[in-house]
Amino acid sequence: MRAYRTGICPECQKKLKPLFVTEPRCVQCGKPLHVSEKEYCYDCAEGQHYFDAGSAVWVHKEPVSNSIYQFKYHNQRAFAKEYAKVLVGQFEKEIRRWNPDVLIPVPLHKKRKKKRGYNQAELLAAEIGRLMNLPVETDLVVRTKNTKPQKNQGHRGRKQNLKQAFGLKYRFRKGCTIVVVDDIYTTGNTIDAVSFLLKKAGAEKVYFLTISIGQGY
């Protein structure tokens, strides 16, 4: 996916069109469903999540997956503006209905952030916040454990990898609504770990927004 003077280039827009997440989708995580009679994807039906609901723009396939890879690892920070524009364009009504008090990006460990130079989720949250005039807290949730990349872990390994991986730097007002922002939703373990922490500390509702999401069934 390439940047263009006025946004995403026309060639990539054609490739992206069939990757937009549309109905039917899981009422909790937002993954696309192949059967319209179902309300939940397999993961949400069989497991427990701590977030209330969430949405993603695209299914995590090419060219989206490569674009996010460039965004995360090859200093393509400008992509954040384009991603945020599409996210807000797709989900502004939904986000307004959630009525969030604050947006919180999934944090990177300080060592990883220093090496990379930035946190892609932080850049994305900042752009969404700017477009929707919503506050963003970048240092409320901290990553206390320098975890291995989730993509290299199995299902059980992902959960274990994130055990006690996050902490709160300070208290926040109980009963608030929070939207967690990240780049990709796969199994939901990262969003869950952050949501569990926030709910335990007093958040009433926790939602999430991501650029892409895995395929549901």
TrEMBL record:
Domain Double zinc ribbon residues, every copy: 5-45
- Show the Gene3D superfamilies listed in the entry: 3.40.50.2020
Q: Which InterPro entries match?
A: ComF/GntX_DNA_util-trans (IPR051910), DZR_2 (IPR044005), PRTase-like (IPR029057), PRTase_dom (IPR000836)
Which residues span the membrane?
Answer: none
Q: Which residues form the Phosphoribosyltransferase domain?
A: 73-209
Q: Please give the superkingdom of this protein's source.
A: Bacteria
Question: One Pfam match, by short name?
Answer: DZR_2
Can you tell me which family this protein belongs to? Belongs to the ComF/GntX family.
The protein in question is named ComF family protein
- What is the species listed in this Swiss-Prot or TrEMBL entry? Dorea hominis
